[in-house]
Amino acid sequence: MAVDLLTRTVRGLGGRLVRLVLLLAAVATASFALMVHSPVDPVDAYVGGDLAAIGPEQRAQIAERWGLDDPPLERFATWLGNVVQGDLGRSLSFNQPVTEVIGERFLPSLALMATAWVLSGLFGFGLGVLAGTRQGRFADRAVCWWAYTLASAPTFWVGLLLLYVFSVSLGWTPVCCAVPVGVLADDVTLLDRLHHLVLPALTLSVVGVAPVVLHTRQAVIEALASDHVAFARAQGESTRGVVVHSVLRNAAAPAVLLQFASLGELFGGSVLAEQVFSYPGLGAATTTAALGQDVPLLLGIALFTTVFVFVGNQLGDLVHARLDPRVARETAGAR
Amino acid sequence: MTALLEVRGLEVDFVQYERGLRRRTVHALTGMDLTVAAGEVVALVGASGAGKSLLAHAVLGLLPPNAVERGEVLLDGELLDAAGRRRHAGRGMTLLPQAVSFLDPVRPVGRQVRRSAELAGHPAPRRAAAEALARRGLGPEVLRRHPHELSGGMARRVLGAMATMSNPRVLLADEPTTGLPPADVRTTLGGFRAMADDGGAVVLITHELRAALDVADRVVICRDGRTVDVADPAGFSGDGAALAHPYTRALWQALPGNGFSVAEGV
Fold this sequence. Notes:
The structure holds two protein chains of two kinds. Chain A is mainly α. Helices cover 78% and strands 1% of the residues of chain A.
C-alpha cells in the first residue's frame, strides 16, 4: 500500500516534470521568436545614450561579438544551451546576472503576493459563503455589488486611491518602497517591512478577491439547493449545521482551484501594484526591463513566471483533489 | 386512533421568472390527501412526475423559497406550517431518499453516517454509525469510501442507515426499491412492515405497485399532482374489477402480466 502510494507519487511527479519541461521549451521558443522579430535592436539598447559616440565599425564589432549575424536558429541553440546550464545572461538595466536580479527581486515580490493571495482567498471565501447563504438579501446584494465594482476596477487605480486615502490623507502608511528611505539595511526591522507591505498587498488582494467571492457564492447556492443538503435538513440539521457540515467543503473546492489558477493574474497585478508603490520586486523589475529593452532579463522573467504559474496550477490540482475525491480518481484514471 | 401524519388538500405552486421579469406559476401539486396512522404502511403510487417525491419534501418543510403552499398538514393531530414541520424533521419524522445524490459527494461515508448519529442524539456517534452500517451488512471499509465508490445497493443501505438512525415514528420512503434485485426489494419492504408493526408510520412512495401490495395497508393513487383514489390492496387482483376508480384500474391493468393494456381516456 505504502509502496504503491510511493510509486504513484513518483510517477505523478515525473509526469508533471515532463509537462513542465515541455511548457518551458514552448515558452522559450515563443519568447525567443518574439524577441528576434521585435523592433528592439540589442546594440542600440546596450549602447543607449552613447549612440552618437560610437561608429558603425564599433557597432559591427559588438554585433559580431554577440553573434547577432548568426542565423536565428543557431543563436537560439546557443541561448538555450546557456539557459540549460543556468546562465540566463546579463541584465543590461541592472548590470547584474539575470539569475541574481530575479533571485533578489523575487523575495519581496513573494512576500507581497503571498500576503495578497492569502488575504484575497480568506476574505473572498468568507464573503462568498456569506452572500451565498443569504442569497437575495441585503448582505448578498451588498457583497455582490462590491465584488462587481472591484472586478471592474484596474489595479493601478485601486492602488492610487488607497495611496491617496491611507498614505496621503490619513498618513497611516508609507508612500513608497519596501523599506524606509534613508535607513541602513541592517537597521530595517520586520515591522518596517510589514508596514511598507500593507498597502501594496491590500491593493493586490482587493483586485483578486472578486472572482473568489462570486465563484464561492455560486458554489454555495448550488450546494444549498442540492439533494444531500435536503437530506441533511430532513435529519434535523440546522442551517448553520448545513453550512458547516454539508456546504463548506463543496464550496471550497472551486475556490481553491480558482485561487491557485489565479497566480498568473496575481503576478500581472503585482507588476502594476509594485509600479504604483515603487515596491522593488520582480514586478517592478519587469517594467524596468521592458522600458529599458533589457531582453535577457525579460526572457528570464518569462521563464521564471512560467515555472511560478505552473507550480501554482499543479498545487491547485493537488489540493483540489484532496478536497474533492471524485477529481482524484479521474486524474488517477487518466494517468 | 389518531393519524400520525395527515395531509389535507395540499397544493404547491412554484413561482418562476422566465425571460427577465415574466412571472410564471407552475402548479406542481393540486390537491394531495394522505392519512397514515401508527402501525400502517401506506403506499403512494403514481406515474413519474405525479408529485410523489414533492409531497414528501413538502411534508418535511424542505421546499425551496419560491414554493407557495396551501392546504393542511397535521402531525400527531397538530396543524403545522412548513417551518413548524421542518423543526420536526429528524425528530420523529424523516425522509429516506432515493438516490446516491442525497449523499454528500465530498465527504467519506463514515463521517456522514456519524453526523446522522450525532443529530439523532447518540452518545457515541462513531460507534453507532459503524454498528448501523454493520447491521446492514456493510463492513468498516465502507466508512472510508466516498459515495461515488459505492454500488447502487450499498448507497441505498447507507441512506437507510442514516434515515433510521433516529428511530423515526414517521418515515417517508422515496422510491426505496427502484433498481434493486427482487430479494433486496423484499428485505427492504419487510423492514418497513416491521417498523410499522413496532408502532411507526411509513409512507412508501413507489411506482412498483405489485411489490408494494405485499406490505401496504392502503394504496393511495396519485396523478398529475393530486391524489385520485385510496384503494384496498386486496382489490388489486384478477382484472381489477374490485377497484372503484377507473385510473386505479387502468394502472393495474397496464402492468405486465395483467394484460399490459393502456386504457384510453382515463
